[in-house]
Amino acid sequence: MTPASRLTAALTAAVALVAGVLAAPPAPSAAPAGSFPVTVVNNTRGTWSDAQVYITVMGQSSPGQWAYLRTDGTLRPINHNDENAPGHLTKNGRNYANMSYTLAQARTVAMPPRIEGARM
């Protein structure tokens, strides 16, 4: 089993556990060479709308460099200054970086060719 297929299998299993959603792999358009698609399907039967199911993918783009996946398939380095960036989240008076997206924003994303220790 190749590293990419192991990561695909791990991500598929992880997604199946999150809020009753199931992963499937149709190909997105214009994906970078070496990437692979991950599609998340909302199988909650209406319990949660696509706008209520959030996806966060974090991993290392290189050893020691933590990043999160954006809907366009790019990895953005995690930066503590994002806590106060436009679009940040606030809970109990504390700001948090917004590193998640909803199924309404993107169902299929291209996983980059290199991401280590990723969690979804």
The SSE string, one letter per element, is: HEEEEEEEEEEE
Question: What gyration radius follows from the Cα positions, in whole Å?
Answer: 15 Å
Secondary structure category: mainly beta
Share in helix: 10-25%
Give the biggest sheet.
4 strands, antiparallel
Strand order of the largest sheet: 6-5-4-11
End-to-end Cα distance = 21 Å
Kindly estimate the percentage of residues that lie in beta strands according to DSSP: 35-45%
Principal-axes shape call: flat
Average pLDDT for all residues: 81
- List unreliable stretches of 5+ residues: 5-29
**How many domains make up the 3D coordinates?**
1
Helix count equals 1
Tell me the number of strands: 11
Describe this structure in words.
Residues 33-120 form the GH64 domain. Residues 1-23 form the signal peptide. Keywords: Signal. The protein has one domain (3-119). The protein is flat and about 40 Å long. 12% of the residues lie in helices and 35% in strands. The chain has one helix at 3-17, and strands at 21-24, 36-42, 54-55, 58-62, 65-69, 75-77, 89-91, 94-96, 101-102, 108-111, 116-119. The strands form 4 sheets. The protein has a 4-stranded antiparallel sheet with strand order 6-5-4-11, with helices on one face. A 3-stranded antiparallel sheet has the order 1-2-10, covered by helices on one side. With 120 residues, the chain is mainly beta. The longest helix has 15 residues, at 3-17.
